[in-house]
Amino acid sequence: MKNMTSSEVRQMFLDFFKSKGHKIEPSQSLVPVNDPTLLWINSGVATLKKYFDGSVIPENPRLTNAQKAIRTNDIENVGKTARHHTMFEMLGNFSIGDYFREEAIAYGWEMLTSPEWFDFPADKLYITYYPDDKDTFNRWVEVGVDASHLVPIEDNFWEIGAGPSGPDTEIFFDRGEEYDPEHVGLKLLAEDIENDRYIEIWNIVLSQFNANPDIPRSEYPELPQKNIDTGMGLERMVCIIQGGKTNFDTDLFLPIIREIEKLSGKTYSPDAENMSFKVIADHIRSLSFAIGDGALPGNEGRGYVLRRLLRRAVMHGKKLGIQGKFLASLVPTVAKIMQSYYPEVAEKQDFIMQIIDREEETFNRTIDAGQKLIDELLEKLKAEGKTTIEGKDIFRLYDTYGFPVELTEELAEDEGFKIDHAGFEAEMKAQQERARAAVVKGGSMGVQNETLQSIEVASRFLYEAPKSVEARLLVAVKGDELVDTATGEAQLVFDQTPFYAEMGGQVADHGVIKNAAGKVVANVTDVQHAPHGQNLHAVEILSTLKVGDSYTLEIDQERRNGVVKNHTATHLLHAALHNTVGDHALQAGSLNEVDFLRFDFTHFAQVTKEELEAIERQVNEVIWQSLAVETIETDVETAKSMGAMALFGEKYGKVVRVVKIGDYSVELCGGTHTATTSEIGLFKIVKEEGIGSGVRRIIAVTGQKAYEAFKDSEAVLNEVATAVKAPQAAQVLAKVNSLQEELKGLQKENESMAAKLAASQSEEVFKNVQTAAGTSFIASQVSVSDANGLRSLADLWKQKELSDVLVLVAKIGEKVSLLVASKSADIKAGNLIKELAPFIDGRGGGKPDMAMAGGSNSGGIQELLDNVASKLG
What we know:
The structure is a single chain. The protein has about 850 residues and is α+β, with helices and mostly antiparallel strands. It has 25 helices and 35 strands. The strands form 8 sheets. Strands 1, 2, 3, 4, 5, 6, 7, 8 and 9 form a 9-stranded mixed sheet that branches. The N and C termini lie far apart (about 75 Å). About 40% of the residues are buried.
């Protein structure tokens, strides 16, 4: 077995499969594109599903990749076990309808055992297989595996609902009896007992059946196109090759751990528990990569995952004694380790550090808030005579504020409390089950459509075509069958077409199909790409169409014009965003419709009014310059050398289209555009909003729609001018400012009158001082015009030593307002008001010294006042 670095292991895997005719697919973003089944890219095959379900046919049916992935279902095990990670790399080789079992198993054995490659000792490798899959057993024996090293496992069948499925075979490395102190041996593998001796390094999925949940597995039909999907965990391979006790004792993690040692002053040892070192090292990798790919910490979805990882890492830093912010300082080390294959972390290092630093600073303030919550909880439990903190409360502190159970336990024990560990574990289990239910392992795949996959005719899209083109009908699909004549609804492929197929955020063209006599014989309602890339026209047929006949394809030019204006404006918007808010504003989706454009991008804050105005102004200035929109066809590397910006989630072939707008914008794009920017006419932003953690959305309009938007704004301004009696629209602002000043004066006058009224009432209200359980209090119904009147009375009360507690209630219109103030260290106003508010069907809260509540039941006022004494007692 060779001594190798992690970079060498990754490269050797890719080189081996390249030598077997595989195309190396680059690692894709951790943020899934157009896949609602996944929160994160969680496997090597997740980005290739379109090939496996046959919706797209790859140029090369043999693929290999090293794909970064994130899984957080078992986050609690990170640091506790030798091999759990939140972010990991999956090495894989894939066959899309090309080779199958024979070659896949032979490749696996050759790569692992050949002296030319990894040179693993064959006697250290054990293989599991699905018991009914005798072909796999036989094939392993044929390549040289001893039958005693083949273990049948009933769970070795990969299935995720309807769609591609099949048996799988897993390869394990035996680390020896040193990791099997009880000498259990192969039983550990056969009975799936958790152990550190037999380490799974590779799984080969033989995707050969079309799963159907309604029939027994034995009756699953064979797939028309059988596929191979494999996965090898880089971290595990490196651990075995480098002789690490755990995955963390390798060059993928040790440089990070060494930095943590410097920060904490503590020493890491592979033989000690060292959970905190491992958690921090794992989590900072996930944070660095995910933020670099456009995800940002937040309160939901991916953002919540990142926030939880960051907070968990920070708390483990505190356990190691690290003072102050520290996580961001680890990012350069992550970038250096991964530089050879993932240069993007280093390229975005400053931005990643900025986000982590800011989030950690926010969390430090949150910790202080959480500490107060624990104090309040313990105080409440003391008052109730309880001695145990319930599991649901521990979980809330953990889940919402990132407090580890150990910290809660430590603080609780200092106050003489116990912890409901069983209740906490039950809450944790429920959360994990919810998380697992929300994510399908590997992500769902569509069922292969054999008919569409079989269409291999040549067809071309005419970018620069006139609005109508003569074309020959090559293929007609009705339902799932190829037909020679088509009626009703069908899907058509022509030898050439001017109709754009939906892609890259640009919607499809609509239009009509005419016969030789010029009669409309079909309406084109949608255009999508067929598996082999042809433009597939969805049509409503008015007169029978025949394969082989020629027709005139005519796009709706007015619709196309609206779409291309919005598409070209999207490129200008993207550039303006970079110029205004920063290069981190990465595209996270777009839609170029007929009447508007929608652009989603990563950004950690709301775009300010001033920034939006600057963006809008900049885009319009470029429009007014009437810059030429050039389209250049070239290869990817040349495009990048031109400074072309690749759009989020797009994959590009050997020949790419570069859309260049003067010196202002250069992007890779397969869409259609205006000839010059002046054709856009006008650009207007109509909305900016957040749509998820760290993702913002701008909706804008162009041309006529932009003009109409400006006219609508003008109409509103004119209405305001009329309402405030401004002779001209230009005088509206001055008039509004004048009215505001007038309003402020009236408010001050009102407050002055309220204060006088309060003062006149105070002498009578403050006379009646009562006592309950050693606490003096004043409780009274008063007459005020609003809640400010209650506050004025409370301010007067605070200035005098009249009582420990003040309770005031007032009927204001149809509502009831309640105020509680306290000078007593034993009585907290926020707690007392929660006891009293129900009498008026209300609710409220506040600080220990003053709280307010609103209610709707004025009939309960007297009962509330009568019960103040009992609530104090």
